[in-house]
Amino acid sequence: xxxxxxxxxxxxxxxxxxxxxxxxxxxxxxxxxxxxxxxxxxxxxxxxxxxxxxxxxxxxxxxxxxxxxxxxxxxxxxxxxxxxxxxxxxxxxxxxxxxxxxxxxx
Length: 106
Known about the structure:
Helices cover 16% and strands 17% of the residues. With 106 residues, the chain is of the alpha+beta class. The protein has one domain (3-96). The chain is globular and about 40 Å long.
């Protein structure tokens, strides 16, 4: 987790975090705790708290824009792993929470 992410968390409080159910620990080799997810299609789940508004992922700890962490960081989904600090979606999430944009990834 980048230093900027540790004081932000806006992405976890802005977007639905959905992914293939096989990434949960209900499937062999899956890592995301299944009890923290909710089904959204026959083959996809979402992190609880991201399926409705206001969005707030159940794994997000702390205060957005101040100090945050992910309680399942090592076991997070591919959706979270692929999110880049400073990209367009990041800066959109930061804007939604009144935070300044970050520089684009490098």
